[in-house]
């Protein structure tokens, strides 16, 4: 018994640590050492003196901060709706709002350009094309789901009685929210914001396509130097700056989050029906932000033959000359990768969450921090690092089919953890003490108290991780692959790489199928997670 | 088809490559010592698969690579690693310990960088006798030309007429008659963008900076990549601008992938603006399967491969005896006298040129 527990503990630590170490720290460390050795250290020291560098850093931080704030503001009402109200189509609403998350940036970029065109924002005083506003709008579009779901699922588990007490004592709804709910929501808002910030900080396609050629972030600069200028030293210097910035940011957020964590215990009550105003307001806001670009995509996917038809969809099953597999084949590849990546992310992220919440302080901090890092590393750094580090037996994985799902899982793990950790942490200690007093062993407490509550968070994290994998483009494109294992986002990019209306129509149809598939899989994953929590309901 | 059979075999094949390579070459597969490059040395006939590293745009018909296997008994394993720039960068990182035996797709804008990094072993294919010498840019045959294509200014035919003819020269593009009509790509982030900048440098020499100042004053729009230029700003994708930097092969693609079908392309090419891009194959230094690699390079220059690439990759075969498919011939205009620059010049100056370009056009 004692040995088994000891083994379990060790596994909890070793599995995530090994995963992160072998597939992230070692490759990234190797490429950084190589780059810094090749003159990169001099470049690094010279960077702060260069005005262009300071400009890039400033713009990177600025756009990420503003994008994050806007995303939180847009998503919070929706999170409230999801957490505190019931309405028809709630599950669908949750799944549908995840859709933007997987859309390849090329496609979204195109949809936004079309929207600007339609609303006459291409020229004149309200020009949106090639401005920072386009970047911010696209970042909100992509990331609303992160806040909506991370905060929403936390809020749902939050005791509603303090707010009701405040209301009884005469607080307005706004006051109750501002002084009672918001402070308790803080850990989840911090968790969600940190992820959104990291995504915007390392955003790549959105900046290139929508920002126009004059706007550069650290991420686009790393790529430009590494790939176009063949200047590994400068690329590495910039990658180090990005990495350190991400590290600092994660440390700060973790601090804040830790300080504000509050007790939570599931309280049963009848959830009120959503009022018409709340529902319409939310659907209107999110419909505008998320729905319009998606509507443009759907419209374009149906345009064929000079009219409307499903021909583009039918064509997805045929292999065209430009692609090694049909679009349907690419979708199947993506699904397979996503299943494996999600499995890895759930195991690694779940174990790491246990260490963060129940482990010793040093281990807890290290895991909390370390597992977030892959979100902040550029795709170039990770891709190149894997290529030069994992090249010798027993880790000769350079051409392995595991490499892509592993890279996807690295980005999925933080999502699992950011939803599971706040939830585990906020499980009311009294609940666990009560269980222990009644004679439950620590393992049993974990199984019967922690697990059911964590299951829903785990499912939300798994859904995200699945979506991330389905839509991932950057790191995938840097890893050597068998062309048969083309993923859907890569296929889409190839379809858009050659002129011709049929190709464009197919690309749009593929994007729509990718969206529907995401919504459906997220729905399924969460349905499964919910059943898990119902079984163990207290 | 030839590509790796089923997913389960992927890793097995890699192990086999290593083992067979070790057996054939008699060296430790993990060592990075390149094998002797002598042709016809006493190596036994290759049996194991040969790995072709290429860019994402590579594709040929299933039958083509199958023909190679049928002829030689050697299977071809494909590895793609991003676009040309990514492919060359990753190959440089793994120089001496390559992820394959042959690389296909390095072009003349990246060639010198690849050569400087000693990526390739010399090999002179017998098939080169039918390849124009103008394409053979490396005298020591570390790379072999396989195909070529032009990056040219394209225009939307309907937007022009007798009263307002389409532009016909680079100089026209700076004419106020074509104000606010041109869209180009940033040469720092796009391969056709770089090719177009090189075309202007080849045409105007030191005067290229003045030319670009004039283009800027004439309202040129710059995008980061080809997709956002062609599908975002150009008429073809619903944009407003009728002149775009694209490829000489874009008009045939507009016909072949038209919807609804059309008889003639909606776009034309300004042949005076074309920059020639040549794509090469080379045997990667450190290959453990040199003989099979040579056979593969020969095959890439064989009629069966050469006649397949026009419609699968929209480029011209390097082999002068290759027969071109009609659909391709009918709609493609090839410049008689395209702009060219020495790869060594390009590599030595590209960062200087693109930085100057950024100052002139974007600041």
Architecture overview:
The complex is a heterodimer of chains A (538) and B (363). Chain A has 538 residues and is mainly alpha-helical. Chain A has 22 helices and 2 strands. Chain A has one domain: Orthogonal Bundle (MetI-like fold). Chain A is globular, with a radius of gyration of 23 Å. Chain B is an alpha/beta fold and 363 residues long. Chain B folds into 2 domains: 180 residues, 3-Layer(aba) Sandwich (D-Maltodextrin-Binding Protein, domain 2); 154 residues, Periplasmic binding protein-like II (D-Maltodextrin-Binding Protein, domain 2). Chain B is built from 14 helices and 10 strands. The interface between A and B is large, with 63 and 65 residues.
Q: Cα distance, first to last residue of chain B? A: 51 Å
Query: Which CATH architecture of chain A would you pick?
Result: Orthogonal Bundle
What CATH calls the topology of chain A is MetI-like fold
CATH top level of the largest domain in chain B is Alpha Beta
Query: Order of strands side by side in the largest beta sheet of chain A?
Result: 1-2
What's the domain count of chain B? 2
Instruction: Give a count of the beta strands of chain B, DSSP E runs of length 2 or more.
Output: 10
How many strands, what sense, and barrel or not for the largest sheet of chain B? 10 strands, mixed
The tally of structural domains of chain A comes to 1
Largest interface: A-B, 63 and 65 residues
Q: What helical percentage do the residues of chain B reach? A: 25-40%
Based on DSSP secondary structure assignment, what is the total number of beta strands of chain A?
2
**CATH level-two architecture of the largest domain in chain B:** 3-Layer(aba) Sandwich
Shape of chain B: globular
* Alpha-carbon Rg of chain B, integer: 22 Å
Distance between the termini of chain A: 27 Å
> What would you call the shape of chain A?
globular
**What are the segments of chain A in which pLDDT stays under 50 over at least 5 consecutive residues?**
532-538
């Amino acid at each position: 018994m004692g040995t088994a527990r000891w083994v379990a503990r060790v596994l909890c630590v070793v599995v995530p640590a090994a995963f992160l170490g072998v597939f992230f720290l070692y490759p990234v460390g190797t490429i950084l050492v190589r780059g810094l050795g090749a003159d990169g250290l001099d470049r690094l020291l010279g960077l702060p003196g260069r005005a262009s560098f300071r400009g890039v850093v400033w713009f990177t931080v600025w756009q990420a901060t503003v994008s994050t704030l806007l995303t939180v503001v847009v998503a919070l009402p929706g999170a409230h709706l999801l957490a505190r109200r019931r309405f028809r189509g709630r599950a669908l609403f949750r799944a549908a709002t995840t859709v933007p998350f997987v859309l390849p940036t090329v496609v979204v970029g195109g949809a936004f350009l079309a929207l600007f065109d339609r609303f006459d924002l291409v020229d004149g005083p309200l020009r949106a094309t090639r401005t920072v506003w386009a970047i911010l709008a696209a970042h909100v579009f992509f990331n609303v789901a992160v806040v909506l779901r991370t905060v929403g699922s936390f809020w749902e588990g939050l005791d509603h009685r303090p707010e009701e007490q405040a209301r009884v004592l005469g607080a307005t709804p706004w006051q109750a929210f501002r002084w009672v709910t918001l402070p308790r929501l803080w850990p989840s808002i911090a968790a969600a914001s940190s992820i959104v910030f990291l995504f915007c900080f390392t955003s790549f396609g959105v900046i290139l396509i929508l920002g126009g050629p004059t706007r550069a972030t650290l991420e686009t600069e790393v790529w430009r130097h590494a790939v176009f200028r063949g200047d590994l030293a400068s690329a590495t210097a910039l990658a180090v700056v990005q990495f350190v910035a991400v590290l600092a940011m994660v440390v700060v957020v973790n601090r804040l989050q830790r300080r504000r964590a509050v007790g939570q215990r599931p309280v049963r009550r009848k959830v009120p029906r959503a009022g018409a105003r709340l529902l319409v307001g939310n659907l209107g806001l999110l419909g505008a932000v998320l729905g319009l670009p998606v509507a443009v995509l759907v419209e374009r996917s149906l345009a064929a033959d000079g009219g409307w038809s499903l021909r583009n969809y039918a064509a997805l099953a045929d292999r065209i000359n430009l692609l090694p597999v049909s679009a349907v084949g690419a979708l199947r590849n993506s699904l397979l990768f996503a299943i494996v990546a999600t499995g890895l992310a759930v195991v690694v992220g779940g174990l790491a969450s246990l260490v963060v919440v129940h482990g010793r302080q040093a281990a807890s901090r290290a895991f909390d921090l370390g597992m977030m890092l892959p979100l902040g590393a550029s795709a170039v750094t990770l891709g190149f690092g894997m290529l030069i580090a994992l090249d010798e037996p027993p880790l000769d994985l350079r051409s392995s089919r595991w490499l892509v799902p592993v890279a996807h899982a690295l980005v999925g793990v933080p999502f699992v953890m950011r939803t599971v950790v706040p939830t585990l942490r906020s499980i009311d200690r009294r609940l666990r003490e009560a269980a222990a007093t009644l004679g439950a062993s620590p393992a049993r407490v974990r199984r019967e108290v922690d697990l059911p509550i964590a299951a829903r968070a785990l499912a939300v994290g798994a859904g995200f991780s699945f979506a991330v994998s389905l839509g991932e483009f950057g790191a995938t494109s840097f890893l050597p692959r068998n062309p048969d294992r083309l993923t859907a986002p890569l296929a889409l990019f190839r379809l858009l790489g050659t002129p011709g209306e049929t190709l464009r129509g197919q690309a749009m149809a593929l994007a729509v199928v990718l969206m529907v598939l995401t919504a459906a899989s997220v729905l399924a994953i969460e349905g499964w997670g919910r059943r898990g929590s119902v079984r163990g309901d207290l | 088809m030839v590509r790796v059979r089923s997913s389960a075999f992927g890793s097995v094949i890699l192990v086999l490559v290593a083992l067979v390579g070790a057996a054939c070459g008699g060296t430790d597969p993990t060592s990075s010592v390149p094998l002797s490059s002598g042709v016809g040395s006493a190596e036994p006939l290759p049996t194991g698969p040969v790995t072709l590293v290429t860019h994402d745009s590579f594709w040929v018909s299933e039958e083509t690579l199958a023909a190679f296997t049928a002829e030689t008994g050697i299977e071809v394993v494909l590895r793609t690693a991003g676009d040309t720039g990514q492919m060359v960068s990753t190959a440089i990182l793994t120089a001496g310990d390559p992820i394959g035996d042959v690389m296909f797709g390095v072009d003349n804008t990246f060639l010198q960088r690849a050569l400087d990094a000693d990526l390739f072993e010399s090999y002179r294919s017998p098939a080169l006798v039918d390849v124009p010498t103008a394409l053979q840019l490396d005298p020591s045959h570390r790379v072999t030309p396989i195909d070529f294509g032009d990056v040219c200014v394209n225009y939307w035919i309907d937007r022009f007429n007798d009263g307002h003819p389409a532009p016909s020269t680079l100089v026209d593009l700076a004419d106020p008659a074509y104000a606010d009509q041109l869209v180009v790509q940033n040469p720092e982030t796009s391969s056709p963008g770089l090719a177009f900048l090189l075309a202007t440098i080849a045409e105007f020499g030191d005067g290229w900076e003045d030319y670009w100042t004039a283009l800027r004053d004439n309202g040129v729009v710059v995008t980061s990549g080809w997709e956002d230029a062609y599908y975002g700003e150009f008429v073809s994708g619903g944009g407003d601008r009728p002149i775009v930097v694209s490829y000489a092969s874009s008009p045939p693609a507009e016909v072949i992938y038209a919807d609804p079908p059309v008889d003639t392309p909606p776009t034309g090419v300004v042949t005076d603006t074309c920059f020639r891009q040549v794509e090469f194959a080379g045997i990667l230094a450190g290959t453990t399967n040199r003989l099979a690699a040579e056979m593969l390079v020969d095959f890439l220059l064989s009629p069966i491969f050469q006649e397949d690439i026009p419609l699968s990759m929209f480029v011209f075969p390097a082999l002068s005896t290759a027969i071109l498919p009609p659909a391709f011939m009918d709609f493609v205009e090839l410049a008689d006298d395209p702009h060219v620059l020495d790869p060594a010049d390009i590599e030595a100056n590209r960062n200087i040129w693109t930085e100057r370009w950024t100052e002139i056009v974007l600041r």
